[in-house]
Amino acid sequence: MTEKHTAAPDATSPWVVDVLRELSRRPGTMKPWVRDVPAPADFGLEVIGVPAGDPIHLDLRLESVVEGVLASGTVSAHVVGECSRCLGEVTDDVEVDVTELYAYPDSVTEETTDEEDVARIVDEKIDLEPAVRDAVLLELPNAPLCSDDCAGVPSPDEEAWAFVPAGSARERIDPRWAALQERFAGGSNTENMQ
């Protein structure tokens, strides 16, 4: 069996919990963990996310279980983005539930699961950021809208296809093909193909 080497969490990070100081290893021990943590850079999708430095509110409960520490509760944050239709600003508040088990080294869970399947306690510390990031990102829309009926970017070209009223048809012929249209207009395509 190969030995797993997981980097220790940065003890100075506001996302890191020192398990020895915050919680005992006795199963059933529970402690509320409520914090406002500054969002790191790139905390979101390409078009919407939590601005760097803005607070992310963590209202969690840390519970000692036989296999490790169970962190559960809610996370809330204010997100800012760009409307996918009109490119205007979109703002929203998200609140998501988080539940993550952090396995003790040499526990049955740690030994029987792949490294990427369960979070680990390393040097008696847990890093909450990856679990919170995953939960928030799954809640964010891939194509945010400023409103459900957003009409999109106003076009200076009244003839643009996106602005053709429903039920009407406009045909714009590329000038390079106009001569062919003139030549074959009025005759059926099957006649001209023979």
Describe the structure.
With 194 residues, the protein is of the alpha+beta class. 16% of the residues lie in helices and 32% in strands. The protein contains five helices and nine strands; from the N terminus they run E-H-E-E-E-E-E-E-H-E-E-H-H-H. The chain has helices at 19-22, 108-112, 129-139, 178-184, 189-193, and strands at residues 16-18, 30-38, 43-44, 48-50, 55-65, 68-82, 89-103, 119-120, 125-127. The strands form two sheets. Strands 2, 3, 4, 5, 6, 7 and 8 form a seven-stranded mixed β-sheet that branches. A hairpin with a 6-residue loop joins strand 6 and strand 7 (89-103). The longest helix is centred in the C-terminal third of the chain and has 11 residues, at 129-139. The chain is elongated. Residues 1-5 and 187-194 have low confidence and may be disordered.
